[in-house]
Amino acid sequence: MKSENTPFRGGPLDGRVLPVLLGPTGHPPKWYEVPVPDAAGGPDTVHAYRRAPAGHTKRLGLQRGWVYEYAPDGRERFTPKWPWNSPRSGS
């Protein structure tokens, strides 16, 4: 498997660069979750990071890579948008 050194912004991993495994398309996963064990033996605290573009080149506007930004609210729930669930217009 290929991996890419990816920087993290915000949260407990701020400023660190970690190797992240790439998927079959050559991109890192959209979300990266870091479980932190509780010192008292309770449930783990999970810190979530969202993938964001690192920037763009000046001349052609190509993307430079990815960074992970801290999401303090946690991971967003994915809800599929089915065409038959939208309200009907007009009739």
Task: Provide an overview of this structure.
By secondary structure, the protein is mostly beta strands. The protein contains no helices and 5 strands. The protein has strands at 3-9, 17-21, 31-36, 45-53, 66-71. Strands 2-1-5-4-3 form a 5-stranded mixed sheet, with no helix packed on it. The radius of gyration is 18 Å and the shape is extended.
Estimated structural class: mainly beta
The count of strands amounts to: 5
SSE ordering: EEEEE
Helical proportion, percent range: under 10%
Could you tell me how far the N terminus lies from the C terminus, measured between alpha carbons in angstroms? 53 Å
Strand content: 35-45%
**How many helical elements?**
0
Strand order of the largest sheet: 2-1-5-4-3
State the low-pLDDT regions, or none.
Answer: none
The biggest beta sheet reads: 5 strands, mixed
Return the average pLDDT rounded to an integer: 88
Shape: extended
Output the radius of gyration: 18 Å
